[in-house]
Design brief:
The chain is an all-alpha fold and about 450 residues long. The protein has 19 helices and no strands. The protein has a single domain, classed as Up-down Bundle (Growth Hormone, Chain: A). The protein is about 80% helix and about 0% strand. The longest helix has 29 residues.
Length: about 450
């Protein structure tokens, strides 16, 4: 008797076929946003993803690495809402996206220059990485609003899925190359390689500006007068909406569980799994491959089961990855690293589900008016979590011993939060299953 369910082999065959078509699209906007996203992903890959390694090489300890994850969002938190109000009053939100992108490129160049200091480099590095978070946060919020303005709702899934595929492809090709270059370098040459990576952020951001200027926008309203009262009006409208409150609560739980181990993962790989730069880059590539293969399937699943169902899968993937690291830490070498490679990359396949679904879930629960400000209010809560949770994770790890056993216990606590977040995502999907969410 047939159960009506697709066999696992059909799911993966379908996923691979969709991966083969990943580089093709008939939508001009999808091609432009994908190319622009590739350049942004390159900045994240060579700069943001190596911040902890760069800081460790300059002499940062575990507490300072925790600060590098916790403190930078403070600047974004301070300036996000004021600049969101300004962005919503611009004739074209593209201008703010371009400004933020160029600001990110320039600031990363300054981060690279910190290594030229002879002494006391950690404090200036932390300060610069705090400043970096301002254009990074501004870019994300203004880009999301700009994307919502210029892409029709019926095209958002395809355009955003294609951009995410191309971003994931960057995660397959480049981390291993950049990691191999870092591994080949010796002594102070490793720091020099990091500096070159940071300096490349500026030309990449200039490329983003060129591509963004090619996006045609029909949204060209007259700029109304700036009024701070719009903040209270928008916040009141948002928090009166049950759909927004429900999504915010679930998303916040997911982010809390994710952010808590940002610096811990790096320390577990380096200190307890004893992975070098190439090995760390290899796991990034393996995870990116599984994400790339499955992304087409998540996109089609979103079209049939709904974007909230895909978000639930993404949340579950975080929990699976955390548990795979815990088991890896309990195994002896070299089995521990092999186990980590296999199961971490399997669980990370669901991360592309989270990437694809989060923005689309947010856009379905915010009103069309003052979109940038609504996104900024949502992002404020995520940033508050970002300030607290990474340092909180490091604090727990150090309080209970700062050794392998402490890492295992801390990661089990993180896994518990992620499992609760997955359950909350399931409840939200089940309650709203099949329902169309409309926000006015």
């Amino acid at each position: 008797m047939k159960s009506g369910r697709k066999p696992i082999r059909d799911v993966f065959r379908s996923a691979v076929l969709s991966g083969n078509k990943a580089f093709g699209t008939n939508l001009r906007l999808a091609k432009i946003f994908a190319a622009e996203g590739v350049l942004f992903s390159l900045i994240i890959t060579i700069c943001n993803n190596n911040n902890n390694l760069f800081a460790a090489r300059l002499g940062a300890d575990s507490y300072q690495l925790g600060l590098l994850s916790s403190l930078p969002p403070i600047v974004g938190l301070i300036f996000l809402i004021p600049f969101a109000i300004i962005t919503d009053r611009l004739r074209n939100k593209r201008n703010m996206v371009i400004i933020a992108s160029l600001g990110l490129g320039v600031t990363y160049v300054l981060v690279g220059c910190v290594a030229f200091l002879s002494t006391n480099r950690i404090v200036p590095l932390i300060i610069m990485l705090i400043i970096v978070n301002f254009p990074m946060t501004l870019y994300n919020s203004s880009w999301q609003a700009f994307f919502s303005d210029v892409v029709r709702p019926e095209d958002r899934n395809e355009v955003y899925a294609h951009r995410t595929r191309m971003n994931t492809a960057v995660g397959i090709v480049f981390p291993l190359l950049f990691g191999a270059i870092l591994t080949a370098a010796t002594g102070t040459g490793k720091i020099a390689v990091h500096q070159v990576y940071y300096f490349l952020a500026l030309p990449f951001s200039l490329g983003q500006m060129f591509l963004l200027r090619k996006v045609h926008s029909d949204v060209d309203h007259a700029s109304p007068k700036l009024k701070l009262s719009v903040l209270g009006q928008t916040a009141k409208s948002l928090f009166k909406n049950n759909h927004f409150r429900g999504f915010l609560a679930v998303a916040l739980l997911v982010y809390m569980g994710w952010q808590m181990d940002w610096s811990l993962y790096f320390q577990a790989q380096l200190n307890y799994l004893h992975m070098n730069e190439s090995q760390m880059s290899l796991i990034v590539v393996l995870c990116a491959i599984t994400q790339f293969i499955m992304l087409g399937y998540w996109s089609r699943l979103a079209a049939t089961k709904g974007i909230r169902f895909v978000f639930m899968i993404g949340a579950g993937g975080f929990a699976f990855c955390c548990l795979s690291l815990v088991i890896s830490l309990m195994l002896p070498p070299p089995v521990n690293v092999l186990f980590y490679y296999v199961f971490q990359s399997m669980g990370s396949a669901a991360f592309s589900a989270f990437q694809l679904s989060t923005l689309l879930c947010l856009l379905e629960v915010i009103p069309p008016q003052n979109k940038t400000l609504s996104i900024a209010l949502y992002s404020t809560f995520i940033l508050l979590s970002n300030i607290i949770m990474p340092y909180f994770g490091v604090l727990i790890y150090n309080l209970i011993g700062g050794d392998r056993q402490a890492m295992i216990i801390t990661m089990l606590i993180v896994a518990s939060i992620r499992i609760i977040a997955t359950a909350a995502a399931f409840i939200r999907w089940h309650i709203n299953k099949g329902a169309e969410i409309t926000v006015v």
